Structure formats: structure tokens, C-alpha cells
Amino acid sequence: MLANLIQIFVISVKCFLFEQKAPTPEIKVPIIWVLGGPGSGKGTQCEKIVAKYGFTHLSSGDLLRNEVSSGSPRGKELTAIMERGELVPMEIVLDLLKEAILACLPNSKGFLIDGYPREKAQGIMFEEKIAPVNIVLFFDASEKTLVDRLLGRAKTSGRVDDNEETIKKRLHTFNTHNDQVVQQYVAKLKKINAERSADDIFMEVQTYLDPLVK
Length: 214
Fold this sequence. Notes:
Elements: H1 2-20, E1 31-36, H2 42-53, E2 56-59, H3 60-70, H4 73-83, H5 90-104, E3 111-114, H6 120-129, E4 135-140, H7 143-157, H8 164-184, E5 189-193, H9 198-213
């Protein structure tokens, strides 16, 4: 009980400190969120977007892993949280994204935020604390397609989570939270059929991004 109260107090203090930080400079370059279930091909599309538009590609998962491997005090705290099987507070994830965006802002043509937000509250906080998103790209594919793709990858990946039971659980978790995000950002959402070739998909992506960089 005491440990839980201490943890709540620590997170509350962090939230307060987060609120007190200097305001984020105005971000005048495009911000794009990229959503899609595991196996949707959004990684391939991110590579194509970066190659054509020169956007800065940021992944919340990569930022978390880099922070953990850095051995910093925050990295050690994140390691402890994950070892306890707990979710990383979204304030910390947002803090990492904000720091990365500010570090790249002077030379960036735009920001591609990969796999974010994972839930509705994350998106709302991002727009409140950093900047409004311009477009939300959602690479949509059926569960059967995603399962088949991931099982095919499993033959060579060696990943322990590439088995049918785990894959379906991951997809269920993604769909549950992603539906809320999609409903929150209907006006900015670009739902893309991800069951086509990578080149055909990218042709559609360009129709949404070209107007942002003119």
C-alpha cells in the first residue's frame, strides 16, 4: 500500500514538473502520426516517406529503448517500471518525444511519429503539450492479412512473439485502443488500404503529404 502511494506521489510530482517546463516553441513544419497494426507495412512506408520528404522519423518505442540502454537515471527508472510489468507513464513517453522534436526542430522538414499515439489520451496530451497533428495516416489491413504476414515473418525472424496466439492478442490490443484514436481524429484521419503493394500504397500516401510541403 505504501509503495503504491509513493509511486502515485512520484508520478504526480513528475506531472507537475512537466507542466512547469518552458513552453514548446511554435512548430511550423508538418507533424504526421503513423498508425497501423503489426504487419501492416507502416515501417516500409515510413522509410519511403523519409526518403522522399526528408522528415524526421521518431518512434516512441525506439526512444524508450534508447533511453533504457543509455543508463541514465530516467533509463534506470524505465527499466524498473518495465521489469515490474507496468505500463510506462504516458508523461514520460511524451517527454521523450518532446525532447527529440526540440532537438531536431532547427533542421527538420517535418516529423513522422511512428506508432503513436497508442491510445486516445496520448494523442490529446500530445496536441496540448507539443503541437497539433496535421495528418493521421492509418495503414489498415484485415486481421487475416496481418496474421498471415506475421506468421510468414516468423519463419525467419526468430522472434518469440511471432506465433499465432500471441499475434492475435497483439492485434486485439492494438484494435481496442486504435479504434478510440481513429474516432478522436476523424477530421485528420487518412485511412489507407494496406493490402496492396508497397508502391501503390505510397502513391496514395503522397497525395496526402505533397500538399503539406508545398
